Amino acid sequence: MLFFIPLTASAERFGETVSISSFSPSFHEESVSRFTLESASGDFSLVDTPFQKKIKSVASAPGAAVTVETGTASAAASPPADTASMLRDTRFLALTAPEITAAARSCAASDDPVYAVEKFVDRTIESKITGIPLLPALNILKSRCGDCTEHAVLSVALLRAQKIPSRAVVGMIYADEYRGEKNVFVFHMWAEAWFRGRWRLVDATRPGARKSNAYIAFAYHSLETETPLAYLRAVSAIQNLKVRYLK
Amino acid sequence: MKAYILSLIIMISGCACKGAPGAIPVGTWDYDILINGVDAGEARTSVRADKNRYVSVSYMTIEAGEVVNSYTQTLTETVDFKPVSLKIENRIIHGSKTENIDTVAVFNDNTVKLTAGGSTRTITIDKPFVLDGAIYMSELVRRKFRKGTEISFSVYEPTVETDEPISVKLLVLGEKQVEINGEPRTLVHVVESIAGIKNIDIYVDDEGITHKAVITMLNNSLELVLK
Q1: Most buried one in A20, A193, B115, B143, CB count within 10 A?
Q2: Exposed, middle or buried: residue B93 (CB in 10 Å: 0-12, 13-18, 19+)?
Q3: CA B108 to each of CA A203, B94, B127, B128: distance values in angstroms, whole numbers, following the listed order
Q4: What average pLDDT values come out for chain B (227 residues) when binned by 10 residues?
Q5: pTM for the complete prediction?
Q6: In CATH, what number does A17-23+43-246 get?
Q7: Which residue on chain A is closest to B74 by alpha carbon?
Q8: CB distance from B202 to chain A under 8 Å?
Q9: Residue B227 and residue B225: Cα distance in Å, rounded?
Q10: CA nearest to A159, candidates A107, A210, A207
Q11: CB-hemisphere CA count at 13 Å for A166?
Q12: Does B67 sit within 8 Å of A8, measured CB to CB?
């Protein structure tokens, strides 16, 4: 049998943070940062994104190490190679549902519809609880609760409903402090959108935040199934992950 | 800060065959779920014969902070392992609210009628496939868990891919001493791979009962341990 288990922010059980070695406060002054990530899995790799570029990959038996550059300078303004997939409807998005189209319309009226989506989603998900697996966008609108996955799913739904190409990203975000741990990465989910000729990092858990060097992406999530293979492949290879900050 | 939720896959190949080696195993088994060694929930899996079909039911409940997630999967296949139906019910309970996320697949030869997210569509699969039911353990039992045995099928699993089956392979690595509830036991170590990704270490006894299954990903270890 296949069981799909949500692992969540139950700090006493699920390790959701990764400490950073050689961390320096200079990180806060940077728009572009470099990190080396080392996993005990030889299959470990990271994706290139508009906000992240792989600099080096080294096999270090039995694992692998990848050095990435994160931040806005990595965001070469090349348009998405596959716009169709970034506009596609899925069972998690329900783009033609009246509730989704109405919410999208309200965001589209803004001068900055991408920022409007961030604000709308943050405001709509009023109960910021953790422990929920991947909920469909309609459920999120109705239940008004969730964590980063719900913020990302609803963001992508509202962006695609406006014909703004967008996709969900799984990875980690830097936190000054998280549940008593300082200077750590925390597992996270967010979105990317291609809008008015440039990429936007969309994180409705913190509308308007623009520090894209604080995000490390593992993989894209198609939102077509609970556990698409690209996502499964990426997270399966994250074993005893270590992060080192490179000044 | 919001937590990132991970869906993990655990295969419980828990099937017994006491008194009838090689026969379709039937029974019910209960498991504790541990995350990083700490109790996190419970699981139950059962297989029963129902006329000319086998029905495998798997249930899991896991507490995740303020939320309780429960999953019930009911898988029906013919006695020669042809897919009949697959129903996955996911209940998410938080406070007074309950979210229901259901997926139902009904099979007719190479077509699948898939209902998920409030819509239904029919998919044609152009190669043979099975469900992840009793067929794997049946094959392991038939081949007596011999070291080096490989069993691979194309499996239809709509929570991973809706339009085509995925390859699920079991490889028997041989006997290994494993600690179960503080007691050392000699069990057969089987590794399961999904689409070429090594996912799960399964430890079974010589009657085909799974005593322990371990998956490690995203820096976390999740175990199912037979009660």
Answers
A1: A193
A2: middle
A3: 43, 37, 13, 12
A4: 39 43 72 90 89 90 84 93 95 87 95 91 96 87 92 94 94 95 93 85 86 88 91
A5: 0.91
A6: 3.10.620.30
A7: A1
A8: no
A9: 6
A10: A107
A11: 32
A12: yes
Provide the 3-class DSSP secondary structure of residue B59: strand
Structure tokens at A17: 């943070």
Is the distance from CB of A199 to CB of A192 less than 8 angstroms?
A: yes
The pairing of beta strand A181-195 with beta strand A2-7: unpaired
| ipTM for the complex shown | 0.87
The secondary structure element, H or E, covering residue A159 is helix A148-160
From the list A94, A188, A224, the residue facing B4 with the nearest CB is A188
Q: Nearest Cα to A87, choosing from A168, A160, A195?
A: A160
Pairwise CB contact (< 8 Å): A233 & B43: no
> Which residues of chain B does A228 touch, with a Cβ-Cβ cutoff of 8 Å?
160-161
Q: Give the position of tokens 């043979």.
A: B128
Domain coordinates of chain A in residue numbers? 17-23+43-246
Judge whether B83 and B77 are in contact, CB under 8 Å. Answer: yes
Measured distance CA(A48)–CA(A65) in Å, rounded: 15
Q: Do the beta carbons of residue B221 and residue B214 sit within 8 Å?
A: yes
Phi, psi of A111, deg, nearest 5: -65, -30
Tell me if residue A221 falls in helix, strand or coil: strand
B66 contacts on A by Cβ (under 8 Å)? 129-131
